[in-house]
Write a structure and sequence with these properties.
The C terminus is likely disordered. With 332 residues, this protein is α/β, with parallel strands linked by helices. Helix 1 packs parallel to helix 2 and helix 1 packs across helix 13. The protein is built from 13 helices and 15 strands. The chain has one domain: CofD-like domains (Rossmann fold).
């Protein structure tokens, strides 16, 4: 990637934020834009909460809880313990420092600010050079249909601990939502060199973004190469309920299926060494493959995976300049 390159990444929470941090560390300041899923957003205790936006803010701001990947480091819980003692709802864990961010966001929203403007202000106050932009300033809410009926995302994910079997997923409000200005500007940037789909849950983190009218088509028609990083290793999800959901929806949990889910929008995919045997099946879909260690346990792991991802994008850029529709080769 040359010095003028700009990278656009699409991310959910913890897994996506890890790769976003790796990209942030290897790119020149201000060259990365990360689009955050806001399908998880909800109002709780009267507060506007944006879990994936906050995970990105905390991770890129260097203040994320290193044990969980979400929430803040050195958190205290006086508010929550007091609320519990009073008999209030405490199923959604709100630490004291985290609570301050939600209060800040809620008061700004009440004053008429957009989620994009608030997120930009929070990023600046945390010293983050990377642009974190919500997928939309319009409300989009992920809902999951189970045997209990339709559940809002946080009730399924946190309150029910992902235990009910998933029968269907929908994104309320998506058909009326517009992509945020930050998303549009990033996609139209003439210096855009690569688009990265982070290793986030395809159904709960990436699909809500792609449900916004026109966005999936824009990625499919993008001049810059689009590279996904698989959230699956050896038939298991690295984080969260991806494998469980795939099984419940009648899908095999494999990198090949992940590639197929993104087939219309990606040019390449990064998969783990454990899944190298699936390279042929993926390249048969017309998707180039890079095989490496995709497990991100340390900062060095995140940086290394980010470098590998952009190397694949570089190779794809050359391929896209010389030919169209030719299946790629694997890098092992």
């Amino acid at each position: 990637m040359n010095a003028r390159s700009r990278i656009l990444a699409f991310s959910g929470g913890v897994g996506g934020a890890k790769l976003a941090l790796g990209l942030d560390r290897i790119l020149p300041s201000g060259r990365l834009t990360v689009v955050a899923n806001t399908g998880d957003d909800f109002v709780h205790l009267g507060l506007d909460i944006s879990p994936d936006v906050d995970t990105l803010l905390y991770t890129l701001g260097g203040i994320a809880n290193p044990q969980t990947g979400w929430g803040r480091s050195d958190e205290t819980w006086s508010f929550l313990s007091t609320l519990e003692a009073l008999g209030g709802e405490s199923w959604f864990r709100l630490g004291d420092k985290d609570l301050a961010v939600h209060v800040f966001r809620t008061t700004r929203r009440a004053a008429g600010m957009t989620l994009s403007a608030i997120t930009s202000e929070l990023g600046a106050r945390l010293g983050i050079a990377t642009s974190i932009v919500p997928m939309s300033d319009d409300p989009v809410r992920t809902e999951v249909r189970t045997a209990e009926g339709w559940l809002s995302f946080q009730h399924y994910f946190v309150r029910k601990r992902c235990e009910p079997e998933v029968q269907e997923i929908r994104f309320e409000g998506a058909s009326q939502a517009l992509p945020s200005k930050g998303v549009i500007d990033a996609l139209n940037d003439p210096d855009l060199s690569a688009i990265v789909i982070c290793p986030s849950n395809p159904f709960l983190s990436i699909d809500p973004i792609m449900a916004i009218p026109g966005l999936r088509r824009q990625l499919a028609e993008a001049q810059a190469p689009v590279v996904a990083v698989s959230p699956v290793i050896a038939g298991q999800s690295v984080k969260g309920p991806t494998a469980k959901i795939m099984k419940e929806l009648g899908l095999e949990c494999s990198t090949t299926v992940i590639a197929r889910l993104y087939q219309d929008i990606i040019d390449g995919i990064v998969i783990d060494d454990a899944d190298a045997a699936q390279t042929g099946a993926i390249t048969a879909l017309g998707i180039q493959v890079s095989v490496t260690n995709t497990l991100m346990q340390t900062l060095d792991d995140r940086i290394r995976l980010a470098e590998n991802t952009l190397r694949l994008a570089d190779r794809l850029a050359v391929t896209l300049e010389t030919t169209e529709g030719v299946p790629g080769s694997a890098e092992v």
